[in-house]
Design a protein that fits this description.
Helices cover about 55% and strands about 30% of the residues. The chain has about 140 residues and is of the alpha+beta class. This is Excinuclease ABC subunit B.
């Protein structure tokens, strides 16, 4: 498969996954995204306060000794494959601790909790509207 086709398929994968699900599920997902994002952030901030530090990630390039394949033809046209040791770069993700300011993190938690409470009623209204607009057969 040509490289551009592969890149296109990888880029289109999230769109294909988003197209999955029932119309009701897509409607609910679309209209409750902000509520879910705020909930996720609130959980993260509460975890930071509980631990006393936050986690961050960074990409680190390392090299690794591996086997490289070399294909060549001799003067008679016969193909020969040899494997030789060689160094290859790879990207590794490291998690590391980051100190937090508890006062700032508490203010952030309080703001996110207030925002989540404000969005909860709106999200519930959207869920009910989506269920009414796109009823499902097996709904209890």
């Amino acid at each position: 498969m040509p490289r551009n086709s592969t890149l296109f398929l990888i880029a289109a994968l999230p769109l294909l996954v988003a197209a999955c699900g029932t119309p009701q599920e897509r409607c609910i997902s679309k209209h409750t995204r902000e509520y879910r994002d705020v909930s996720r952030l609130l959980t993260e901030v509460e975890g930071n306060l509980e631990r006393g530090y936050a986690w961050e990630e960074r990409q680190v390039i390392r090299d690794r000794l591996t086997q490289c394949r070399d294909v060549h033809r001799d003067k008679d046209g016969n193909v020969h494959v040899t494997y030789t040791p060689c160094w290859r770069d790879y990207v590794d993700t490291e998690r590391y601790r980051v100190p937090i300011d508890p006062a700032a993190e508490t203010r952030k938690r309080d703001g996110l909790a207030a925002r989540k409470a404000k969005l909860a009623d709106q999200a519930e209204a959207y869920v009910q509207a989506c269920k009414k607009a796109f009823p499902e057969k097996d709904e209890s």
